[in-house]
Amino acid sequence: MLHPFRIFSAILIIAHPLLLKMSLQTICRLQVTREDADTLGHRVCDPDADSLATSGQNFLKQLNQCKPFTPDQLKVIQDLLSSGNTPFGPPSTWSSSTLDKLSGLLPMLPQNILQNIPEVRLKKKNQIRRGKRQVSKSVRKLRYCPPDKAVTEEVLQDKLMPIYYTPEELGACLKGQFLLDHLPLVTSHAYTDRQMFELKLNLDREFPDGYPEWVLYDLGVLLEIMSEEEIKKWNITSPETLRYLLDSQPTDDLASSIIQRYVDHGNPLNATALDAIGPRYICLLNVDQLRRINEQAIKMAKPLQVSKCSQTTVNTLYPKAKRAFSDRHNEFPAYYDLIKPYLSKHPTLVGKKEQSAVGFYITFWGERC
């Protein structure tokens, strides 16, 4: 017996394309299955952003062939892929075969998604290794700045400045105190990888024992070529510096190193630090770091979305959250809204009953009795 959806789709295709589009949008809001998506084929390109948000995970395979997308469609697709709630899983688990299946969508993904894909990160690390080797060779080739290539403040004001210099020339002409005095302006430009390595090498010469905190605020584009070993030498002494570095959306590996360096300096994981870490990096915290978070920090910080974190993370933070908001447990639904981010994976709060506010209160008061 033919699937009713397939019969309906066939009638619509014959009847009128506009009717098909309108019906498809309605159907998508009611959830389109993968089987339905196969039936629709290229016609899944038609749904609006709301439809994609509802059922997009079921027809990513077909969307891979669609182009161009509207800005709203593109935003939903990016959010969907970064969430990990698709048959492909989170970007951090994508393999080469996954990239092949999503080849049509990859060019539209932002850097903060691409940098978490293992294959892309490996390629970037290889580029860094090659860049370092090339820089070490170029140092021997050009020691002095050609007279006609001298870098002045006027030159730095030119947005096209990088294209006037080879990596070797940039390394020879932009260094020393002049580089330090104009670092914010220098790092505001877009460079090739080799140019960035030349500039970083000059900066390393000025601070062989690690960058002082003021330099970290002016790293700009150079942050993306820093290694975990180099971050271990940085002076990160304030949550404001932590926020600045994490706001640049480094890879998970670099973010973990930045957070650890902050903690190594004896800095507290207070509300300001937790807000800096935010939902993007909260799941990276290790057990020792999680134990440093107290109830007051949780109470004062913005909600920590830990539903996608490990069970260890949730188990560690849930009891602290309960104590942090215990003075509001009689306020409904305010208390539920405060504690909700910590519920989804907690072993005592995973049943269907507890997924609702009423069910939560039944369980909560049961625990208190």
How far apart, in Å, are the first and last alpha carbons? 55 Å
Helix content: 55-70%
Radius of gyration: 26 Å
Shape: globular
| Order of helix and strand elements from N to C terminus | HHHHHHHHHHHHHHHHHHHHHHHH
The low-pLDDT segments are 1-34, 36-43, 135-140, 349-358, 362-369
What is the average per-residue confidence, as pLDDT, rounded to a whole number? 76
Task: Outline the biggest β-sheet.
Answer: none
- Tell me the number of helical segments per DSSP (H or I, 4 or more residues long): 24
Q: What is the count of β-strands?
A: 0
Derived structural class: mainly alpha
Instruction: Work out the strand percent.
Output: under 5%
What attributes characterize this protein structure?
369 residues; mainly alpha; 24 helices; 0% strand; globular; disordered N terminus; signal; Mesothelin; Stereocilin-rel
Put the structure in a nutshell:
This protein is an all-alpha fold and 369 residues long. The protein is 57% helix and 0% strand. Among the domains are: 4-85 and 97-108; 110-206, no CATH class.
Can you tell me about this structure?
Mean pLDDT is 76; it is low at 1-34, 36-43, 135-140, 349-358 and 362-369. The protein has 24 helices and no strands. Among the domains are: 4-85 and 97-108; 110-206, no CATH class. α9 (118-141) packs across α11 (167-173), α11 (167-173) runs parallel beside α14 (193-206) and α17 packs parallel to α19 (271-281). With 369 residues, the protein is an all-alpha fold. The longest helix is centred in the middle third of the chain and has 24 residues, at 118-141. It holds the Pfam family Mesothelin. Belongs to the mesothelin family. Keywords: Cell adhesion, Glycoprotein, Membrane, Signal. Its main location: membrane. This is Mesothelin.
